[in-house]
Each structure stands twice: as C-alpha cells, then as structure tokens.
Amino acid sequence: LVHSKDSKKDSKTATRSPTKHHTGETIPLIRRDPSHCQRTGFSPAAASKCDWIGPPDRLSNLRPIIYHIPENETPLERTLRHLRQDTEDWSHEFWTNQNFTFSKEKEEHVRSQLSSKGLSERDDDGRKRTLSSEEMAVFYKHFLDKNMTRHASYNREWYGRNFTITLLMARVALHNTWRTLTGQTRGTGREKGKST
Amino acid sequence: MYKTPCSRLTGVWKCLLRDGLLGVSVQQRLIANASRSHMSVRSLIQLCRKNQTEWITFQHFCFLKRQYVKSSSGLCQRAGPKQEPVASVLDDPDDSVVSQVQQIPALKPEPEAARAARLEARQWKELKVEYSDLPGIYARLSKIKLTALVVTTAAAGFAMAPVPFDPVTFLMASVGTCLSSCTANSINQYFEVPFDSNMNRTKNRPLVRGQISPLHAVSFALACGIPGVTLLTLGVNPLTGFLGALNIFLYTCCYTPLKRLSIANTWVGAVVGAIPPVMGWTAATGSLDPGALLLGAFLFSWQFPHFNALSWNLREDYSRGGYRMMSVTHPSLCKRVALRHSVGLIGLSALGPVLDVTTWTFPLVSLPINLYISYLAFRFYHNGDRQNARKLFFCSLWHLPMLLLLALTCKKRHVPQDEAAVAPSTPSLAL
C-alpha cells in the first residue's frame, strides 16, 4: 500500500480559484476535471483579498490554504503561488498516506496479537480490546524502521521546498515594497498573461 | 451542466454574508435520495443566480469531492443526524477502509464554551496577521516558557561564577540569551510545520495555524538573533557570543533535522541544554573554567531522565510523525540511559567541592533529591510503564531548579583578589 509518492507529481495548481477574477459576471460554472477540483469545497467571498486557511484536514492533519490571485499577478507571485500549492498538495498526499498506513497497520497488528492470544477483537461489553503499551511499542518501532528511507527523503524535499518558498516570499515582498516606494502601480492584467 | 460522480450530498457549506462574519460554517444536512439531491443542487443554483453579490461558484459543489470520498470504496447513508455539525467518518460496512486520525468524540452534551471553541477551530479564517494577537503569537513562536527556563539556567551559571556580581553584565547576558533562545525556537518551529501539525502536543503552534507566514517567522527569528548574538559578543564578551551562536546552530541545524534521522538527536539536544549555564559563567568570568563545564554537565545529565521519561508516553505520536527517538526504536537503551544519568547526577554533585564551585555541604544537601530521582529512574528502568515515566518526568521538573538553588546557597565564597596572591585557592580542606 505504501506508494513511493515522494517525488513531485504534476502540478494541480492551475484551477484553484476562478472566483477572483470577476466583476459582476454570472456565476461561472466552469467545467473542470474532477480530479483538479477543490477538495475542500470552500470558497471565500470574492471581495476578500486574503488567502484563507482552513481547519486541519481529516486525513493529513494539514491545513489547506486557498490562495488569492491578485488582479495583476506578477510572474514571481505566480511562481510562488504555484510552488506553495504544489508543496501543499504533495505534503497532503504524503501525510494522508502515512496516517492511513499507520492506522491500518496498527489495526492489523492489534488483530494479529489478539488472535495469537486467542482473544476476540471485542470483549464482553462490546468494546474493542486494546493492547498494552509494551505490545504496541513493538509495532511503533517496526513502523519507524520500515519507513525510514521514505521519511528521510520527505524530510530532504520538505526542507528544500520550505526554504525556496520562503526565499520567493522574501523576493515578492521586496519587489512589492520597491514598487510601492517608487510609486509604481500594478499594470493592467491583460498583458500579464493568464494564470492558468 | 455540472455533473457529479457522486450523487449524494453529505453536507452543505454555507457562505455567510460578509457583514462582519469572517467564517463559514458547515451545516450538516441529509439528502435522502438522488432526486432530492438534484433538486437541492438546482435550488442552490437558482439561489446563486438570484443573488449575485454572493459568489457561490462551482466550488460549492466540489465539497462532494472530499478526500475520503475518493479513497473509500463505497458510501453509505447515515442512519441518523450527527450531534456535531462537522462531517465525521462514513459508515463503511467492512470497517477496514479509511479510519479517522482523530477520535470521534463521545455523544455527551458538552459545555457551551468548549463547543463554541471547537466550532471556531473548524472554521476557515483569513490568512492575515492580527496585530493585537502578535505578542501572544511571538510568545508561542519563541516557546516563551522554555526560553524562561533557559535564561534561568544561564542566570544560575552567572551567579555561580566566583567573581563579584556585575548587574549590567548580568542583564545583558540574560537579554542576549533570551533573544538567542527565541531565535532558535522560532527557526525550529519554522522547520517543523507539517510534523507539528500531526502531533497532538504541537498542533496549535502559530505557524501550523497560519497565524503568521513562514517569512514572518524567519524575520522574527533574525530580528531576535542578530541583536541577541551581537549583544552577547559586544556587550558581554566574544566567547559568550560565540557560545550563543553555536547553540543556535546546534539546535536549528543539528538537533532539529536529526530528530527525524537518528536517536543521536537526544545527545545533541542535551548539549544544547548544557550550553546556557556555561554561557552564564563565561559571561561573568570571560573564560571557560572547569566550574562552567561542571554546571553544563549537570544540565547535560539532567536532560536524559527528563526527556526520556517525557518521550516514553509519546511513542505513538513519534512513530506516526516519523521521529526517531530512543523511546521508540531502542526502548531498553532509553531506560538505561535515564538511570545512568540520574545516578551520574550524584557523582557530579560530589565534584562541586572538588572543582571549587561549591562547599562540601552541597553533595550532602543535594543527596536526598538526587537519590529520589535516581530511585524513580530505577523504577522506570525496572518497570518501564507509563506511570513511572510520568513520575520521573514530573520529578525532573522540580529537581533541576532545586539543584541549582542548592548549588547557589552552597556556593564557595572566594577570598578577594588581593588576598588571593597570598593564599592561593586550593581545593577545600574539608575534603
């Protein structure tokens, strides 16, 4: 069940937020590939100019973010947004897999231990039997050892991505500050190209 | 026309009008059959079309595509309304598919405040800085309680040094140490966001909750670290500044990544904990004396009963989060090391008079508490259960301040400088 999904997958960034570009049009029921669809189902109000952060995802425990696309997004900002989106998706997939695998293997371990002791899964009150912490510790050790390489490669990639994102954020912030200081405003959106 | 592969709606997101309300609340509704579901989709669309000030778009219908819809093999209808408004795990017949990471809470009526807090935590929030919250955010980012403990140990090191007490240097050393500790803790949290999200102990940290951005956290760290280390180097002495910078480096670039790679992280972490009292001493004297190293050794040894006991009861979280801790991978080593270092504290206390740091009364008055922690460590070693681990951990929390206080009260009073030339300081005759 363990996928080796630590490598980057195709970016799913393009179709996140169509809401932001409108000025009074009718509701855009944009057809899109379901696999790219918003997994959270949340859509902030169009007037909001902020990113929005949601509650922890039920599987990966990571909080999803919906990024606001400004009217005239610079290429740098677009790169940053795509990178953050991609990192979020990649991280989400890793942790979903991790948590799911952990739970599943833990259940299997409990079941096998109980059956080797000749006990049923539930006791007389109908509650699930649990093992002692020493018996569980065997499983915890095994899980860590089994996944060591996967964890190490996730680590490496996470550090690299985190660092790149922060550097990009710094560049964007400096760029925007410079523009504000020199009195430049954002250009009109049309010549900047599409965000998708 | 929108078409959904899953024709059952399991919940409806409602967007509240933007007149002061920032969040979105989920209303759990049951849709009994497909025709009703189409109807409600249609009625939603009509509602949208009528009210163009509310941008309800395609994404509203994508709530169907919850991740667990994708990964579970089948959907079953709920038998009855759930008490909590948040969507919970689907009833799956064979129970073996997706299992929740979080536990399903018991169906007891909960106090209003707790319920409100819980609902508030499940809401979407704008990702922007609330300036009124910033002090609290910075406090959590810099782990203010841990920082306070670090500064206390540094102050103890300063006070134990056999030189006249200089309040200005003391203040500068304390402030510098505080700032360095804030830096180290902030960078640590910056590195660990996805891991912190997945552990119960750490899931409410500011970066995890998005209260500030990573760039903001790094800027805060730099804004603390640069003045802090500069203050230590220029205001105290270069040796202390170097130790401060070294400690930041060890904590952020050695300990933090090592936590996920090897159990050696605990030893590195113990060194990190040992450096502040050394810094305090060098701030006072300007040199790395044996007394400084002795105080460092106290902290180093203390870390093991403290941390090993703490990590004993967090084994599941560490395992799931991918942290390589002794308690998970080498449990017997974990217990052995905790015991070894607890007993070692007794020996180190005896070195106090030898190195002229304390009088001979120190090993005697510290013997009871050292024996007690060794006894608890022995029980932990022998039984290795949660109860004994907890006892050892809580003992370590009061043991360290007590030990430092006793050392301070038993501090060796040195003769003033001009008499020292006549009577060179020798190890106490009492030995």
Automatic annotation (TrEMBL), chain A:
Residues 1-26, 106-128 are annotated as: Disordered. Residues 1-13, 119-128 have a biased composition (Basic and acidic residues). The keyword Transit peptide applies. One of its GO terms (cellular component) is mitochondrial inner membrane. It holds the Pfam family COA8. It comes from the Eukaryota. It is a peripheral membrane protein. Belongs to the COA8 family. This is Cytochrome c oxidase assembly factor 8. It comes from Cyprinus carpio carpio. The lineage of its organism: Eukaryota, Metazoa, Chordata, Craniata, Vertebrata.
Automatic annotation (TrEMBL), chain B:
InterPro entries: Protohaem_IX_farnesylTrfase, Protohaem_IX_farnesylTrfase_mt, UbiA_prenyltransferase, UbiA_prenylTrfase_CS, UbiA_sf. The keyword Mitochondrion applies. Its EC number is 2.5.1.-. It catalyses: heme b + (2E,6E)-farnesyl diphosphate + H2O = Fe(II)-heme o + diphosphate. It is found in: Mitochondrion membrane. It comes from the Eukaryota. The chain crosses the membrane at residues 146-165, 239-258, 265-284, 360-380, 392-409. Converts protoheme IX and farnesyl diphosphate to heme O. PANTHER family: PROTOHEME IX FARNESYLTRANSFERASE, MITOCHONDRIAL (PTHR43448:SF2). This is Protoheme IX farnesyltransferase, mitochondrial. It comes from Cyprinus carpio carpio.
